[in-house]
Design brief:
This protein is an alpha/beta fold and about 425 residues long. The chain has helices at about 5-10, 20-35, 40-50, 60-70, 75-90, 130-145, 160-170, 180-190, 205-215, 240-250, 265-280, 285-295, 305-315, 330, 350-355, 390-405, 410-430, and strands at about 5, 100, 105-115, 115-120, 145-150, 175, 200, 220, 230-235, 260-265, 300, 320-325, 340-345, 380-385. The chain has 3 domains: about 20-225 and about 375-380, Nitrogenase molybdenum iron protein domain (Rossmann fold); about 225-370, 3-Layer(aba) Sandwich (Rossmann fold); about 390-430, no CATH class. Belongs to the histidinol dehydrogenase family.
């Protein structure tokens, strides 16, 4: 079920993904169909892949009303508190436009505006993800996005999970459709008779959704290409092996391709974690998924010491990093590459997934080396502002000419030279 590996063995382990050529061609065919046939293609794909024939793609109002009767009061209370936490955290990220006069009195600035229309993909399939609604819609709303459109696949009865529906209604999202897969990404990117195109698409999905986002990038913006989810837990002898095992299984139950890795310099802890995993997995309703994940991409990695463990962390740049070590906060300050860092035994990954406030949409597959969690910044755009005065142009124009001519762009230089000639002459005449 789980391998205990020396560091060298782990680094040599083949973790390459498949070429995915067949899936990519299938996605391209679906996107082309959506471009050509619009709503008809969406309904055709929904029947083929989700097994349901839909007359109307929009989620009907009565579905939301019924959903409130289907969820528990406990869920609704937890949802509203999580919403408050997430909104409060993201409100601290807001940016304002700036206008700075330079030393010559020219105005230089940056205008910050929200994107006009954003599409959010919420997965279905193996589980329902109301948390994905929160983590994608809240930063967009805080940024001031005017139009948020949500897509999510229906079940075989044509329904959407009630927890997702309640979350959509709690956030006040007015436009939501029961369509998923690559076809939904195509609708958001290209538009159909029912779904108008968006400026950016965010949200996780399966392989087909990820490949579709890759294909439409450039036509629209996307947040990231999310690979299988992953957790790396650095633990020493102070760690509780039951906590480590539970947190590894929390990751492994996501998906057979999810990765759950414990890194420790302690052979004794490694042995206790392996035994705790064997016990705890038997109690999981999603035992088969977790077992497949651990067998394919799980590992307990033995290092010489914590220094070597943290060197591995920065090399791997994990999506989720848990620190179950003594003086964990100090070690956290030394980590350069991680999507989210969970510090200490009482900060398990699910707290961040659902409730604490920071976004759970994180860079995967080592991309935390150069990218960041989803944030308010993902839903804004910035325009530079330059307002030069006549005197400044007359005084500095020859510098611009020199730089333009160095690049061989004579028309650039002439655009300055013609002003210097005319404006300088007017000043002299005056």
């Amino acid at each position: 079920m789980i391998e205990v590996l020396q560091l060298a063995d782990y680094l040599c382990k083949d973790r390459q993904e498949e070429e995915q050529a067949a899936e990519r061609e299938a996605v391209r065919a679906i996107l082309a169909d959506v471009q050509a046939a619009g709503d008809r293609a969406l309904k055709r794909c929904t029947l083929q892949y989700d097994g349901v024939a839909l007359d109307d793609l929009r989620i009907p109002d009565h579905a939301y009303e019924r959903a409130y009767r289907q969820v528990t009061a406990e869920f609704l209370t937890a949802l509203r508190q999580a919403h408050d936490n997430i909104r409060r955290f993201h409100q601290a990220q807001t940016r304002t436009s700036l206008l700075l006069p330079d030393r010559e009195g020219n105005l230089l600035g940056q205008i910050v505006r929200p994107l006009r229309r954003v599409g959010i993909y919420v997965p279905g399939g193996r589980a329902a993800y109301p948390s994905s609604v929160l983590m994608n819609a809240v930063p967009a709303q805080v940024a001031g996005v005017r139009e948020i459109v949500l897509v999510t696949p229906p079940d075989r009865a044509g329904e959407v999970d009630p927890h997702v529906l309640v979350t959509i209604r709690e956030l006040g999202i007015a436009e939501a459709y029961r369509v998923g897969g690559a076809q939904a990404i195509g609708a958001l990117a290209y538009g159909t008779e029912t779904i108008r195109p968006v400026d950016k698409i965010t949200g996780p999905g399966n392989l087909y959704v990820a490949l579709a986002k890759q294909e439409v990038f450039g036509k629209v913006a996307i947040d990231m290409i999310a690979g299988p989810s992953e957790v790396m837990i650095v633990a020493d002898d102070s760690a509780d092996p039951d906590y480590v095992a539970a947190d590894m299984l929390a990751q492994a139950e996501h998906d057979p391709r999810a990765a759950a890795i414990c890194v420790t310099p302690s052979p004794a802890l490694a042995d206790r974690v392996a035994r705790a995993l064997a016990v705890q997995i038997e109690r999981l309703p999603r035992k088969e998924i977790a077992a497949e994940s651990l067998a394919a991409r799980g590992a307990i990695v033995l290092t010489d010491d914590l220094e070597q463990a943290f060197a591995l962390v920065d090399r791997m740049a994990p999506e989720h990093l848990e620190l179950l070590v003594e003086d964990a906060l100090s070690w956290a300050g030394r980590v350069e590459n991680a999507g989210a860092i969970f510090v200490g035994p009482y900060s398990p990954e699910p707290v961040g997934d659902y409730f604490a406030g920071p976004n759970h949409t994180l860079p995967t597959a080592g991309t935390a080396r150069f990218s960041s969690p989803l944030s308010v910044d993902d839903f804004i755009k910035k325009s530079s502002l330059i307002c030069y005065g006549k005197e400044s142009l007359l005084r500095n124009g020859h510098h611009v000419i020199a730089l333009a001519e160095a690049e061989g762009l004579t028309a650039h230089a002439q655009a300055i030279r013609v002003r210097l000639a005319k404006e300088g002459r007017e000043r002299n005449d005056g």
